[in-house]
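Data availability (excerpt). The following record was deposited with the supplementary files.
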Amino acid sequence: MKFTENEVAELVKEVVAKIQLETPQAEAGIFDDMNDAIAAAKEAQKVVRAMSLDAREKVIANIRKKTKENAEILARMGVEETGMGNVGHKILKHNLVAEMTPGTEDLKTTAWSGDKGLTLIEMGPFGVIGAITPCTNPSETIICNTIGMFAAGNTVVFNTHPAAVKTSNYAVNMINRASVEAGGPSNICCALRKPTIESSGVMMHHKDIQLLVATGGPGVVTAVLSSGKRGIGAGAGNPPALVDETADVRKAAEDIVNGCTFDNNLPCIAEKEIVAVDSVCDRLIKYMVEEQGCYLASKEIQDKLVATVITPKGLNRKCVGRSAKALLKMVGVDVPDSIRCITFEGEKEHPLIATELMMPILGVVRAKDFDDAVEKALWLEHGNRHSAHIHSKNIDHITAYAKAMDTAILVKNGPSYAALGFGGEGYCTFTIASRTGEGLTAAHTFTKSRRCVMTENLCIR
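Predicted structure:
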């Protein structure tokens, strides 16, 4: 049988791709040196930029497929490596990322036509993006970011959190193998075997990095925004959940506890504290304790928790993302598996209320009325403008709260994770840029606006 030159080239391409995919312990996209990682991503971006949107979408479809196939592996790796979170919930998060992260459909072209001709505004790639990722949602953030950045025509270099490097690099390798399998290049995302603060500095100041994206605490976001480059900062929040006198209190208790305990409170959007008006406060706590698996902590237990979870240098990392049962065991309290949250009533200044804990501890602040509740919630959010939640049937109250909080996310009468398309409408993201104003990031976020003008012609009205 004779083959044409094109058929031979296609066969060679398939064989090479198969060898790459079946190489044991292959670490596609993983490098020892940040400069090498950036150089590889730069070469890959030349290919990505020339790819049609259909070709990019084929790669993205395969990334989605591989993410779902590896959801349990990634979930278990994340929990085992970091000690944080819940395997079942992390599986849900990976499936959510696979199904609900926007791809090339998020890119839109704007056009004007008239007597003077035709003008287009199109979304163009930045090139190579430098990204910093957290240990709280390591693989989820990498997959979500890569889909959006690649859809827009970019490649990305990650400086991952050292505490989640194995999980992160597994995700990077999986993505690159998925790209090659679907006809795309390798190194559409890159990372380091041993990421450090120094390697992040190299990335932030490298001449070939056009855009920086930081998902993490206030320190890393500040560093990115001080780099002199364009930066997108997805930082901290301390989301309050307000419950007013018109709320369905029983449902509010269920929604708030479900949101707070999802993945042991690791999502930055999760309810971190409650502000309830006086007339419903006791009833809310009653439902939380009697129906929603909450442990009501005494003053003595509260004090022990403060001493355990908060250190002079900040949060005790051994407590972040742990279950309520594990946290209570640390302070000498044994509870059944049905206990999934710790609650108590306290003033807004209470350290377990005012601090973003990222663990299922949910303090309740009593307010004399709705206006007082808004004032307390606004103070507790600390001006991060990240996320806030409200349970109310009063449209005026919901509107007033939304305007006062001015957050990137506001969830009304539902659990916090509804904001990410899990039980609510809309797309998913794990990079919520409240500090720099982009809000819920997607492919369009990682583009720059480009205007193309033709005078006199191509207006055919």
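Summary of structural features: The mean pLDDT is 93.
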